[in-house]
Write a structure and sequence with these properties.
Chain lengths: 116, 109
Amino acid sequence: KAGVTQTPRYLIKTRGQQVTLSCSPISGHRSVSWYQQTPGQGLQFLFEYFSETQRNKGNFPGRFSGRQFSNSRSEMNVSTLELGDSALYLCASSFPQQGSNTGELFFGEGSRLTVL
Amino acid sequence: GENVEQHPSTLSVQEGDSAVIKCTYSDSASNYFPWYKQELGKGPQLIIDIRSNVGEKKDQRIAVTLNKTAKHFSLHITETQPEDSAVYFCAAGRRALTFGSGTRLQVQP
């Protein structure tokens, strides 16, 4: 069974540009979450999508946005990049538990973004 | 929102010794407490989890304990091996997970 696939794995952008990251979840998983990982802040929750709807949102500015398609694939976008956006962006998929409770997250290997 | 604190930030043990990592959480509504292991260049991988209706869970050399009253939970690794060396994260939540800051475990051969 294929795991979570994230593209691109590495990218370099300059301040002010925008970036789009892609995530393909495990087949059958309908929930996709995004996390930002930095040495100083650890793993921080960005947002979660389920059935094309944003179900939960972390405490990030509106420059960070996402969407989910009908095949459960997800993209996240960061506009007007800042130096502090340099991080590893991790996508995780899951098969939701009863109700909207969270369950095991299966992480991809991440997209490493460097902003110059 | 939820706040998760994790200690220690680094832990060095001799092969064969035990390792214990502790976390506290703030939101009494949290009902799911997983532990993830992250190796260099890879995404975190679940190693064990526990729900709030259970006090302890064990899987071979790994065990997790949960004290809901005190709002803390711990990871115990026995008979550590060099391949246990990695960064370990605790997390807590109900609808979304909040992660601890991570513990870098080094197992010396």
